[in-house]
Specification:
The chain has helices at 7-22, 39-55, 68-80, 99-103, 117-124, 134-145, 165-174, 189-195, 252-271; strands spanning 2-4, 29-34, 58-63, 86-89, 154-158, 178-182, 198-201, 209-210, 219-222, 226-228, 231-233, 236-237, 244-246. The chain starts with a strand and ends with a helix. By secondary structure, the protein is an alpha/beta fold. It has 9 helices and 13 strands. The model has no long low-confidence stretch (mean pLDDT 96). The protein has a 6-stranded parallel sheet with strand order 1-13-9-7-5-6, sandwiched between helices. Helix 7 (165-174) links the parallel strand 5 (154-158) and strand 6.
């Protein structure tokens, strides 16, 4: 069984971004609104800041209060600011927040996380130059880098979030895969796994899927990452019957940061 690494690919993407940023007269500016009460969000933002600085991208972090009104007011302000190219709102938001109400305020041309309905709609119809959520794009980049054939294959996507499961399903469909979408409440996941040539795991639960139920020679792309007492694990428990599985950590997550920086550049191009 081969373990698919994202490190080299991540470095390649970052190098391309760095080269383009260096050629610009005005550096792209990314602004992140963060919920300070969520440790996972703070850790995620620190990684993005480190990557942005290394690539020459300006990075601003704004700590928000638990107020929909303040979020909306700040987003409207950033939408109008011509010096801001990309806006991201970290999730989860504070308890009781209307996530869609806040996300929908982001100008689609500055929506670096591609979660605004218009951004997702452009992805759905595969409009030229669309921006995809970074993790969904990272999965596709990993598949392409390892020359994994999707055309005509049975592809099972386990997960239905708007940030990973749903968008990556549409992207795989565009690559001519025969796509089935399942989730944690699907009644017979082992049967679905037994038919799939490629499994995309993005369900967000540690070892929910056991690769022993997969078809012999199947390929698994695991987008999950969970910090447990025994170590870091993904959504899938590996098994030697697989042809390959992405590393956790060191697989999809590694590429996600690079794809987010790539999205910052796409937003810059849209606004300049």
């Amino acid at each position: 069984m081969e373990y698919l690494s994202g490190k080299e690919l991540s470095n390649q993407i970052k190098e391309k971004v760095k080269e383009e940023v260096a050629s610009l007269t005005r550096k792209p500016h990314m602004v992140v609104l963060v919920n300070p009460n969520d440790e996972s969000s703070l850790g995620y933002v620190r990684m993005q800041e480190k990557a942005a600085v290394q690539l020459g991208i300006r990075f601003s972090l704004i700590t928000m209060k638990d107020s929909e009104e303040e979020y909306i007011a700040k987003i409207k302000e950033l939408n109008e600011d011509k010096d801001v190219d990309a806006i991201m709102v970290t999730r989860p938001l504070f308890k009781g927040a209307d996530e869609s109400l806040i996300i929908n305020e982001i100008n689609p041309s500055k929506d670096v996380d591609a979660l605004n309905p218009l951004s997702l709609g452009e992805l759905f119809i595969c409009k030229e130059g669309y921006i995809a959520p970074a993790t969904a794009q990272a999965i596709i980049e990993l598949i392409k880098a390892y020359k994994i054939e999707v055309k005509g294959k049975e592809v099972l996507v386990v997960g239905r979030s708007i940030s990973v499961g749903k968008p990556v399903s549409m992207m795989l469909l565009e690559m001519n895969g025969t796509v089935t979408i399942a989730h944690s409440r699907s009644l017979d996941l082992p049967t679905l796994l037994s038919r799939a040539d490629i499994v995309i795991a993005a369900v967000g639960k540690p070892h929910l899927l056991d690769a022993s139920a997969c078809k012999e020679g199947a390929i698994v792309i695991d987008a999950g990452i969970h910090y447990l007492e025994g170590g870091i694990v993904g959504d899938v428990k590996p098994n030697d019957k697989l042809r390959a599985i992405s590393k956790v950590p060191g697989g999809v997550g590694t590429i996600t940061t690079a794809c987010l920086m790539m999205n910052v550049l796409k937003c810059y191009r849209r606004n300049n």
